[in-house]
């Protein structure tokens, strides 16, 4: 950021004309969407099974969730090419709920959490993601990734996941290595290698996804040497997998805790994914975040009511959806239909899959959630962001997800106060909006941080399109990285709607690093509390 108008100081011709939605969109784009939906089905099938097993749930629960996510939640959601389904980010939450409440009790939690998401959607709470610092969100996801790896490494080695907590989650790993089952460990290793190297093959990897190849290779090794254990869907496959929730313990302390965590993580991840996919959408469509909550809530209520896992919007599958030429929400629908058709037609094929192959897939997914590059990126943004991400990740790993996120947020608030944010400014930004003809001026003062960004975001969301918006930073003494990135996203979106954005008065703000989203601060002599 500089004292000159930013690179966003320009006028765009507007967004490209998007494909039609709903039934006209189906008639217009069914061929491309069906192809993408089929490829997504190939990706989702092993992931649905593996995520269910890692969550302590019956494997068919993951399939039920994928079907409901594609055929129901997708049609009610506010996004266009975002893919819904069970995802690694919810494994820790579901596993904790199943461990404390049993699977039927966890289903009841999912039903209530889905209902709360619907209420939040109608209450227009989609903008609440703006409160959470991005470094803490990334730390939360990294901590979840570390937990997934810490649990699935045992299964990939042929041992049972001990489901340890605290420091024991790490100290239990050497024992499994020293007592591994060679034939089973070979399957787990093969799955990991396929997940790592198959995507490097280019075009074929886009058509035949790595998780499917990992399952095929693992199954081949298992059939050759008789290694197990294998997937067990139970008698009847999909039709016998339906299970009713048990609401008897819903008012207990543990149930309330897991309801809060279900709503928090499922909503936060879905909304952040929808935001990320909006940036990748070739037609620059913007998701309706409130409808996104309603769609996910309805999907979670139905899925949990019939024995399925909770669902979120999943970023990797959504990216694959776009890369494979999807144009509308019907690709998600086709992926759900293909899942249902395959499991109904050939459940016995799935029972040839070794658990170690699914564990190997999840090991790589967990590693991607906690990828070193994410920590490196946080360090480039600033040392404080790196510290917040690191502390959050390892607090989540060693204690509890809620404690980890709360710790990161509290530390972020303390740092904001240290950097000169007054208590009165901590949750209330100092902003003034004036409009004259085609010109809109937004005067920003004092401190701008994740902690007071939501009111500013509400002002930005309410701006009429196609105007010239001036962001005046002359009265600001502190801007944190979350606000820097959110303002950048606003500029890109506003310009795409044929508007113009100019930044002025920011020459006195000094970046903490060379990264474009690093913290900006004014010299102490010019800082205003």
User: Low-confidence parts, pLDDT < 50 over ≥5 residues?
Assistant: 1-12, 525-529
Q: Helix-strand pattern, N to C?
A: HHEHHHHHHHHHEHHHHHHHHEEHEHEEE
Biggest β-sheet strands, sense, barrel:
6 strands, mixed
How many domains, as an integer? 2
Quote the average pLDDT: 91
The radius of gyration computed from the alpha-carbon positions, rounded to a whole number of angstroms, is 24 Å
Instruction: Count every beta strand, where a strand is a DSSP E run of 2 or more residues.
Output: 8
- Helical amount: 55-70%
N-to-C CA distance = 21 Å
* Structural class category: alpha/beta
Treating each run of at least 4 consecutive H or I residues as one helix, how many helices? 21
Query: How would you sum up the global shape?
Result: globular
Strand content bin: 5-15%
Please provide a written account of the structure:
Helix 1 (22-54) packs across helix 15 and helix 7 (182-197) runs antiparallel to helix 9 (210-225). The radius of gyration is 24 Å and the shape is globular. The model is unreliable at 1-12 and 525-529 (pLDDT under 50). With 529 residues, it is α/β, with parallel strands linked by helices. The strands form 2 sheets. Strands 3, 4, 5, 6, 7 and 8 form a 6-stranded mixed β-sheet that branches. A two-stranded antiparallel ribbon has the order 1-2. It is 60% helix and 8% strand. The chain contains 21 helices and 8 strands. The chain starts with 21 loop residues before the first helix and ends in an 8-residue tail after the last strand. It has 2 domains: 29-130 and 182-366, no CATH class; 423-526, 2-Layer Sandwich (Transcription Regulator spoIIAA).
């Amino acid at each position: 950021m500089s004292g000159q108008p930013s690179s966003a100081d320009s006028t765009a011709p507007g967004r490209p004309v998007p494909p039609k939605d709903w039934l006209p969109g189906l008639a217009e784009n069914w061929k491309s969407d069906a192809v993408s939906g089929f490829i997504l089905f190939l990706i989702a099938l092993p992931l649905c099974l593996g995520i269910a097993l890692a969550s302590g749930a019956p494997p068919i629960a993951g399939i039920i969730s994928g079907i409901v996510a594609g055929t129901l939640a997708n049609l009610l959601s506010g996004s266009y090419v975002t893919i819904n389904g069970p995802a690694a980010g919810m494994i820790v939450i579901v596993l904790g709920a199943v461990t404390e409440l049993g699977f039927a009790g966890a289903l009841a939690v999912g039903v209530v959490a889905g209902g709360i998401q619907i209420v939040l959607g109608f209450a227009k709470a989609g903008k609440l993601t703006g409160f959470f610092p991005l470094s803490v969100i990334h730390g939360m996801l990294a901590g979840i990734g570390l937990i997934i790896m810490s649990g699935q490494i045992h299964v990939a080695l042929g041992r049972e996941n001990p489901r340890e907590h605290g420091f024991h989650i790490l100290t239990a790993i050497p024992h499994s290595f020293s007592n591994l089952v060679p034939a089973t460990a070979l399957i787990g290793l093969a799955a990991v290698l396929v997940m790592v190297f198959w995507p490097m093959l280019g075009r074929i990897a886009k058509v035949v996804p790595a998780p499917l190849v990992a399952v095929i290779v693992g199954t081949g090794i298992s059939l050759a040497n008789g290694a197990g254990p294998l997937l067990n869907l139970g008698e009847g496959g999909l039709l016998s997998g339906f299970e009713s929730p048990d609401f008897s313990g819903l008012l207990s302390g543990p149930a309330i805790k897991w309801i809060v965590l279900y709503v928090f993580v499922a909503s936060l991840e879905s909304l952040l994914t929808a935001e990320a996919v909006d940036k990748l959408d070739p037609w620059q469509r913007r998701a309706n975040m409130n409808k996104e909550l309603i769609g996910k809530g309805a999907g979670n209520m139905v899925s949990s009511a019939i024995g399925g896992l909770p669902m979120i919007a999943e970023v990797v599958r959504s990216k694959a959806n776009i890369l494979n030429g999807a144009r509308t929400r019907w690709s998600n629908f086709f992926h759900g239909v293909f899942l249902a058709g395959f499991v109904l037609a050939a459940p016995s094929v799935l029972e040839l899959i070794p658990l170690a192959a699914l564990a190997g897939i999840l090991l790589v997914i967990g590693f991607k959630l906690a990828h070193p590059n994410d920590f490196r990126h946080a360090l480039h943004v600033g040392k404080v962001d790196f510290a917040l991400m690191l502390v959050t990740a390892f607090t989540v790993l060693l204690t509890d997800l809620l404690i980890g996120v709360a710790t990161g947020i509290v530390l972020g608030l303390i740092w904001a106060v240290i950097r000169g944010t007054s208590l009165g400014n901590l949750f209330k930004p100092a902003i003034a909006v004036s409009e004259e003809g085609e010109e809109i001026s937004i005067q920003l003062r004092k401190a701008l941080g994740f902690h007071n960004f939501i009111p500013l975001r509400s002002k930005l969301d309410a701006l009429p399109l196609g105007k010239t918006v001036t962001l005046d930073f002359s009265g600001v003494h502190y801007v944190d990285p979350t606000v820097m990135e959110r303002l950048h996203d606003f500029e890109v979106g506003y310009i795409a709607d044929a508007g113009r954005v100019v930044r002025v008065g920011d020459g006195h703000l000094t970046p903490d690093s060379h990264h474009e989203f690093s913290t900006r601060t004014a010299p102490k002599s010019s800082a205003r509390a």
